[in-house]
Amino acid sequence: MNNQHPPTTNGNAIASFVLGIISWLLFVVLLCLNYVILPVFTIATMGFGGVFYLCTLSVSCLSPLGWLIGTILGYVAKNQIKQDRYGNNSLANTGFILNAIGLGLTILGICAILVYAIAVGGFSFLDQLQYQY
Fold this sequence. Notes:
The protein has 133 residues and is mainly alpha-helical. It has 4 helices and no strands.
């Protein structure tokens, strides 16, 4: 009787990989939308297209959230595969790396924004947005 486990794929590894692909696709689509399509549309509609920027702000947080969840799922999948001693580790590694790169770039971007804000004297430029009575 053969006691070997059938080759299986960890569900967390699949989820991590799929979340990484979807998050990166969403990131690229929003990047093109916010920096290419919407500026042209805003100019063509004499400013009305700027309203769509507000719509994309709520969607833009989904990529970093997906990368965070995908990184955690990839890490859990790697540990489960290591503990069970069967299964394919490459999908878990790919999902983990794909999501970790996106998450790392997000953290790097937030740090760059904070360094820039400190260099120019904080966020005092936001005071100019308030109405003066």
